[in-house]
From TrEMBL:
<protein>
    <submittedName>
        <fullName>DUF542 domain-containing protein</fullName>
    </submittedName>
</protein>
<dbReference type="InterPro" id="IPR038062">
    <property type="entry name" value="ScdA-like_N_sf"/>
</dbReference>
<dbReference type="Pfam" id="PF04405">
    <property type="entry name" value="ScdA_N"/>
</dbReference>
<dbReference type="InterPro" id="IPR019903">
    <property type="entry name" value="RIC_family"/>
</dbReference>
């Protein structure tokens, strides 16, 4: 795509693989803040637009030669997210949670923020698991039903559309909670900067929490700005 200042962050992430890493590098929110234009995002972060654009184009071409995930069919996208984002995020939570508790127990007296971080991470895991469950049991099956009906040129029932809307709303509420949790975690951890007296477990925790936040943001972006719009385009 021809990247302009008027493009939103979400549009760029949807059409340029690897751009999420560039946005993360400059601390630009490509999930909940995906509706911002590049002009606004660059201004807020003090970045030259051309610098951002060139880095995005370079990493996208290196990874895919310009392929867009928007060109991939919906069933394939759903299979990719279940085997990719869901598995990766679940594994990261499994790795991180023992360390949030350990660091809170060992360093909680000197660094009270790690106690709150521990609680926030545990809460975020509960919510993300509910989101995964809703997607697998409700959202994705409804989307597949809509795709099949469209391929057969069959009318999509009002009940199906209502179920789709409810499932989308459930995930949007959950994603808002998750996004807020990671914003607070990032703030409490000074953007995942370990203190001078940090041990190896402390370093490991912050490194993996930052990676977890990145993967969660990519997953939420995928559903909100790629999968749902593609499905709605079928209905329209």
């Amino acid at each position: 795509m021809n990247i302009t200042k008027e493009n939103t962050v979400a549009e760029v992430v949807s059409k340029n693989l690897g751009s999420d890493h560039v946005f993360s590098k400059y601390k630009i929110d490509f999930c909940c803040g995906g509706g911002d234009t590049l002009e606004k995002a660059c201004k807020e972060r003090g970045i030259e637009f051309e610098t951002l654009k060139n880095e995005i184009e370079a990493i996208n071409n290196k990874i895919t030669g310009g392929t867009s995930i928007e060109d991939i069919d919906i069933p394939t996208l759903i299979n990719e997210v279940k085997g990719g984002f869901h598995a990766t995020i679940s594994d990261l939570f499994f790795e991180v949670l023992p360390y949030t508790s350990k660091v809170a127990n060992v360093h909680g007296l000197e660094h009270k923020e790690v106690i709150e971080i521990n609680e926030l991470v545990k809460g975020a895991e509960v919510v993300i698991n509910e989101t995964f469950r809703n997607s697998i049991m409700s959202l994705y099956p409804i989307i597949i039903e809509i795709v099949k009906a469209s391929e057969k040129t069959e009318e999509i029932s009002i009940e199906t559309l209502q179920s789709l809307q409810k499932s989308i709303e459930r995930n949007e509420i959950a994603q808002g909670l998750i996004g807020d949790s990671f914003k607070e975690i990032s703030k409490l951890s000074s953007n995942y900067t370990t203190p001078d007296d940090a041990c190896s477990s402390y370093d490991y925790l912050y490194k993996n929490l930052q990676q977890l936040q990145h993967e969660v943001h990519k997953y939420m972006h995928f559903e909100k700005n790629v999968l749902i719009p593609k499905t709605l385009n079928i209905i329209e």
